[in-house]
Sequence to fold (462 residues):
Amino acid sequence: MNKTLAVLLVCFAMTACRTLPHSDSFTEGVTNNTSRGMPTIANANGKLAHGQASALVARRWAKASPDLKALAVLEEQATSVPLFAGNKVTLLFDGPATMKEMLAAVRGATTSINLETYIFDQDPIGLEFADLLIEKQQQGVTVNVLYDAVGTLTVPQAFFERMRAAGVHLVAFNPVNPGARKGKWEINNRDHRKLMVVDGKTAFTGGINISSTYANSSFFRSKQRPAQDADSSKVGWRDTHVKIEGPAVSALQWSFVNNWVRQDAGDLPERDYFPTLYAAGDKLVRVLASDPGAGFEIYKSLLLAINESKKSIHLTAAYFVPDQQTVDALAAAARRGVDVKLVLPGVSDHGLVFHAGRNFYEPLLAAGVKIYQLQVAVLHAKTAVIDGAWSTIGSANIDRRSFLHNYELNVVVVDPGFGADMESAFNEDLRDSKEITLEAWRQRPWSDRIKELAARLTEYWI
Fold:
């Protein structure tokens, strides 16, 4: 990790600061009368007619607030991304459960496996994946792997060369060495996405990398608890991933193909990456694949949902170093009576990020936002559920790096039933968290305040 930080810090000094768009610009030139609009909805056969979309929304959101449709319309206007109907979305908690499902999907692959990851470690989990990918390639399944060059900076190249020699197709995303990239050298723009698409029909995405770091599950939904003096490195990682089946998989597959092509890596081996997809469930899903400094789709969708919230904002953030606009939106929501709760790290693998994020506690707490720090795990999840019906899971952290400089991938699920599952998970995390009150916060040691001030100087880059 020290080598990674050293490379990034050198590169950061070479780049100019970018800014995030103001929320007033999200839907410029668009009518304010969203209550009569209808979000664009597509299924396996293409875009639904207005009447079909209206009937589907009425059926799926019958028990939801009427504001849900207006939010869906606003979000589409801001991101230009439609909703996909007919999806099955399965929540996966922590590394072990996710790895089990992903490995099972790989074993069952018959045509193609497209894997995109920030970290692909040479450790027991990474070796298990590598061995299985090699096996599938030798069975005639086309295996394509896109891994980030900085996220894998400390991994021996022999690890990747062994897969390459076996026929697996690999591309290092934005190499550190400028001579290794055919196109434009963009060292500061990292591929932080976590995505696997099998046979073009099943996709996995969220916060989990291919690494044994995630092999130690957290105490989420466990009757056991770590000892009070437990080593923080052994308490496990709390993360969230999703498995998606249905028409939305085509959009996830497209995001992989697009990132592969933008690396000037040549054409993907010929396969049917976009088979006909049929309805697998009843969930409405929006796929947001954001690029550095481009459409800011993930940032816009989150800020819009916060601004339009009426009842609750329940947000879980692994690395929380928000811009001022996000802080103001959360504070404004709390002041207008929305139940705003944040689950943030009590144990972190990035001390600089941990302390930089704490700079924002005072104004949030003063506005009525409730902040909790997870005690039983290293928090790595990046999720939110708003008004019990709008949910997002993905790779993007709430910081400028994710929104400005990284290639990130989030899915939005607009469904009250799925929202209830997300609320249940959030409440489980609350049970294992310690609330930070404004009074206690104002009495924290001066040594902590100095660390926070020092860390804030780097907040744009971390």
Q: What stands out?
A: The chain has 15 helices and 21 strands.
